[in-house]
Specification:
Layout lengths: L4 H35 L19 E4 L1 H4 L5 H13 L9 E3 L26 H10 L3 E7 L16 H11 L3 E5 L8 H14 L5 E4 L17 E3 L8 H12 L10 E3 L12 H13 L4 E3 L8 H7 L2 H7 L8 E6 L2 E8 L3 E8 L5 E6 H4 L6 E6 L4 E2 L4 E2 L1 E6 L3 E9 L2
Parallel strand pairs: 1-2, 1-8, 2-3, 3-4, 4-5, 5-6, 6-7
Antiparallel strand pairs: 9-10, 10-11, 11-17, 12-16, 13-14, 13-15, 13-17
Helix pairs in contact: 1-6, 5-6, 7-8, 8-9, 8-10
Bound molecules: 2-acetamido-2-deoxy-beta-D-glucopyranose (4 copies).
Pfam families: Melibiase_2, Melibiase_C
GO molecular function: alpha-galactosidase activity
InterPro entries: Aldolase_TIM (IPR013785), GH (IPR017853), Glyco_hydro_27 (IPR002241), Glyco_hydro_27/36_CS (IPR000111), Glyco_hydro_b (IPR013780), Melibiase_C (IPR041233)
Length: 413
């Protein structure tokens, strides 16, 4: 195999330099804006968002991928029930996140957002209380624009402080903040206003910047949010899923505890991919330290879907305390190796076959950061077995089409 990681490095440098020039104007105005924001209170200078959240990538569920606008308080409560009854909550899936379409089109006469009477008649405080009583957390959605993407409810642009206070008063724990209908105002101007508003609202609220990767939010999002989308929306297809993973990988160096790259929510269980493809989806999200937000109907999980999303060994890779996002370290045609360090001098490795035929793929110690002559123990996280032989110099496996292997490698001598 030819190694492309070396050849790739200069391209990335050129890209970043070119991008820095393009961003100069934006950065200057954003910087003066941030200085202005930082000087108006005791807020942290380096990082506007000091909420202590997202030490590991968030885990939970979001309504959009399966339900889009067809949401109501009954199904949100049933989903909270299901998170507990399926055992998912014990594995770390804690957020119940309501996406677009939860509010009336008009604010009330005081300018407050109003939950949609026909679908959320009990209101958001009651729903938050219900979710909290189950030991879970609740997330909500707004938009750094005049309307949300559905255009069925207002966005928060110009109402940031009022809406942040409303969310805090309801007991909201997580805000997904979208990018539609934004009046062509730069995101580096719009997003910090909500960050500051949340910091003033008196409740730690995870802030998920949903800027779609338009202006490379990995380069500025860490000061403003706990995660930032690096891509446009995912859909339930192999091409969409794998291309989100690729786009997200470019920014691997910017992820860290407290701030994560977000290639969008999971489609596992929605029916558009094969079992192997969903295993690739879950494996890549896990090693990429992506948010693990389930996007299917949890009230009737199939055995197959449940087996994928409850794999505790794979979840542990995602939640590893080191918090380092894996990278694509070797690629030849359709065959790829993705790898990233874990705590305890271990390495997580995905052998990924994107092509139409079964093929052998090798992880070379050289590529994945293991010293050359190390003797290595390999744990297969989907087979749940520790391989009987140990390995020197490389680990090679045969991988089916649109499938992957996921190992933890541990040097033992
Ligand atoms: C909400 O809807 C119910 C009927 O579903 C109606 O009786 C009630 O007046 C509505 N409340 C508001 C504030 O519109
Ligand atoms: C899903 O995304 C892929 C790739 O991004 C695109 O080609 C396809 O048209 C999309 N499918 C749907 C149903 O939107
Ligand atoms: C899943 O469960 C919900 C609620 O029980 C039900 O409305 C829905 O039709 C079910 N879907 C399938 C595919 O069985
Ligand atoms: C893997 O390493 C072994 C030595 O342990 C060597 O014989 C073999 O050729 C290597 N295979 C690949 C594909 O690099």
């Amino acid at each position: 195999m030819e190694c492309r990681s070396y050849c790739k490095a200069p391209a990335v440098v050129v890209f970043v330099l070119a991008f820095s020039l393009v961003m100069l104007e934006t950065t200057v105005s954003a910087t003066s804006r941030m200085t202005e924001i930082a000087s108006d209170g005791d807020l942290l200078r380096r990082n506007l968002l000091a909420n202590g959240l997202g030490v590991t990538p968030p885990m939970g569920w979001n309504s959009w991928n399966h339900f889009a606008c067809n949401i109501n308080e009954k199904m949100i409560r049933e989903t909270a029930d299901a998170l507990v009854s399926t055992g998912l909550s014990k594995l770390g899936y804690e957020y119940v996140n309501i996406d677009d379409c939860w509010a009336e089109i008009a604010r009330d006469d005081k300018g407050n957002l109003v939950p949609k009477n026909s679908t959320f008649p009990s209101g958001m405080k009651a729903l938050a209380d219900y979710v909290h009583a189950k030991g879970l957390k609740i997330g909500i959605y707004s938009d750094a624009g005049y309307f949300t993407c559905s255009k069925t409810m207002p966005g928060s642009l110009g109402h940031e402080e009022q809406d942040a206070k409303t969310f805090a008063a309801w007991g909201i724990d997580y805000l997904k903040y979208d990018n539609c209908n934004n009046g062509n105002i730069k995101p580096t101007i719009r997003y910090p206003v909500m960050t500051r508003a949340l910091m003033k609202a008196g409740r730690p609220i995870f802030l998920s910047l949903c800027e779609w990767g338009d202006l490379h939010p990995a380069l500025w999002g860490d000061k403003l949010g706990n995660s930032w989308r690096t891509t446009n929306d995912i859909n339930d297809s192999w091409e969409s899923m794998i291309s989100r993973a690729d786009l997200n990988e470019i920014y691997a160096d910017y992820a860290r505890p407290g701030g994560w790259n977000d290639p969008d929510m999971l489609e596992v269980g929605n029916g558009g991919m094969t079992k192997d493809e969903y295993i690739v989806h879950f494996s890549l999200w896990a090693i990429s330290k992506a948010p693990l937000l389930l996007g299917c109907d949890l009230r009737n999980l199939t055995k197959e879907t449940k087996a994928i999303v409850t794999n505790t060994e794979v979840i542990a890779v995602n939640q590893d305390p080191l918090g380092v996002q894996a990278k694509k370290v070797r690629s030849e045609g359709d065959l790829e190796v993705w790898a990233g360090p874990l705590s305890g001098y271990r390495v997580a490795v995905v052998l990924l076959n994107r092509g139409p035929w079964r093929n052998a793929i090798s992880a070379q110690w050289d590529d994945i950061g293991i010293p050359p002559n190390s003797n290595v123990e390999a744990r297969d996280l989907w087979e749940h077995t520790t391989l009987k032989t140990t390995f020197v110099a490389n680990l090679t496996a045969t991988v089916d089409s649109h499938a992957c292997k996921l190992y933890i490698l541990k040097p033992i001598s």
